[in-house]
Amino acid sequence: MTDKTMLKVENLKVIFPNAAGVVRAVEGVDLTVREGECVAIVGESGSGKSVTSLAVMKLLNSPPAVTRVDTLEFDGRDLRQATEKEMLDIRGKEMAMIFQDALTALNPVMTIGHQLDEVFIRHQHMKKKEAKQASILALRLVGVPSPERRYSDFPHELSGGMRQRVLIAMAFACNPKLIIADEPTTALDVTIQAQVLDVLKNMQREHSTSLILITHDLSVVAHMADTVYVMYCGRIVEKAPLKELFHRPLHPYTEGLLAAVPRLSEENHQFIQIPDAVPNPMHKPAGCTFHPRCRYCTQQCRDKMPPLQDMGDGRQVRCWHPLGGPNLTEDALQDGSVGKEAGRYE
Amino acid sequence: MQKGYVIKRILYTIFIFFIVVTLNFFIPRIGVEDPAERYYPPQGNMTDVEYDIVKQLTREQYGFDVSTFQQYIRYLNDLFHGDLGTSFQAGSPKVADLIASRIPWTLVLSVSTLLIGLFLGLLIGSYAAWKRGQRVDTAVLNASTITTALPAFFIALLLSLYLGFEWELFPAYTDPNMVASFDWSWRSISLVASSAALPIISMAIGSVVSYAQNTRNSVIAVSNEDFILTARAKGLPSRQVLYKHTLRNAMLPIVTNLGMSVSGLIGGSVVIEQIFNWNGMGTLFLNANNTNDYPLMMGIMLFLSLFALAANLVTDLCYCLLDPRVTVGGSR
Question: pTM here?
Fold first, then answer.
């Protein structure tokens, strides 16, 4: 990991207007990924993590999506200004994506070889024959056995783990600078999960690729990530380096997520459940969006959305009452005695 | 596995064909009286003995002199040798010849209709899907509502009235001598083309719209699939995504549709042919029905079923080529 910033996103907002109202999927997300860094975005379904990643690649269909962002810098380029034609050259070549369910993410009527070839032909202007060689090599690198034979297989003829490897090979094909992996192991068995994660991690290390890992699985995060962003209802609620987050979560939601992971070591471990479910994105609660499910909720939480504030050591949290820290009041914020506001909020 | 599937499908088709032949033989015989009495009612000056002789001769001529089961065996045997029987029409023409003489004329209409429908339908449908929710798309939707509500014969009557009689753009009525005088000269080809215009247009309108609607729905369903997002994330231009990824998958339901249309190709449209006085299979069948000419009816029905079965077989095999997953599921 170097100090060079690969991706910088500031104040990303994505809304989906429809006849019944507006779904605010992402509300002001800041994201920084350094070269070779693995950033995990953690959150439940509907927290806006997939939309964030699609917005970064400018892959959201518009309409219906409406995207606003203050900064979208990738490898020193301002992607906000990039035309669709320029984006076509960036996607797949400098920025690639790995999707969740490899069965549906691969075209069922095309051989996997053909689908891999497309990347090489599109971005490296290879002839069909060269592309085939490159594809076979790519399959070998991700540990697909006898890649020459698998090359002409259709997706349904491969196992889930192999399919996911194909997607990984496809993403790494042009040695991109940034890869976004959207729940890459959710659809796999646990044993296969570990293998696929190892492949992903090795590939990332060898090519020093930046990786955004989107997941709700904290064990995957522990295995892979350097920095963790926790998202809830379209906002970042906590950002921390991996170890600090696991040792001392600051946000009640993070605490809940961690406590929901079963542990064998502690006898009679009681799950601390987070009650209820993620609120309907069309009717988010007032104040802090997490307050209806929060154990530490106060009147202040019901009234006003807390800002995302720096807590030192590269940590940020969006909470009026961070765990183990001083309670925040608006007065304290204003006289600057506690933290410094990092995120914009309205 | 692929080969096994093909053989299985062919054997299955032959089995079905045998059943069709059998039903086709017995069903018309259920309610039919002695054809001898039906076609040769006793003449005034004929004695009973003479009449019996006439009846016996007629029965022999049309093969009714033996038991039904023997007739069935004979029918199978004739079929096996490619003989569809003899029509009751004057001059006792062979059924096979009658059918063969009508097929090209029916194909002129049905094949052009199908090609126009398929070509324009795919084009308009994929364009509408691309411009989803925009004006083209809504137009296709509305057009499909309208053409579903308006049967083809109604459109045919309107066209015949306005394009044919009022504005005289095309002949509203086919020249009865067109078939007999056809000689591949430029003049007779253009006569056929102009006479075929109205029937083709009236059938093609519905066909275009229904293919367009099907294509549109299918394309939209496929564009929401994950693998389309994968293709876009690879940096493929949207045109390439549409042609190489979306359309190939969207074709699957359309091929089913196409298979069904193909099996109807030689049947012709009884109503449309009637309106424009077109001498195709539809008219032939209608006449056979009106005159109780059941060797001809049986011949036509048998021929249509054979064609439909073949079309189905080809569709299934095409499916196999288009969708690699079919072989596995289909071979059971």
Answer: 0.73
